[in-house]
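Q: Hi! First time doing this. I have a protein sequence and I read that you can turn it into a structure. Is that right? Here it is:
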Amino acid sequence: MGSFSIWHWLIVLVVVLLLFGRGKIPELMGDVAKGIKNFRKGMGDEESADTSKTVEHDAEEKKKDS
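A: Yes, that's right. Below is the predicted 3D structure, encoded as C-alpha cells:
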C-alpha cells in the first residue's frame, strides 16, 4: 500500500507533462536556478554592506575618542 508501482509513476509523469508541457519544465527549473543565484548575490551584498557599516562605525568611535 505504501509503495508505488511503475504504472503509478508513469501516470504521474504523463499528468505532469500534460500540465506543464515538455518545454515548460526546463524553463521552470532555469527560473528556480536564477532565483537561487539572485538570492545568494543579495545575501552577499547584504553581508558586505553590514561589514562596511561596522568598519565605518568603528572609525567614527575612534575619532570621538581622540
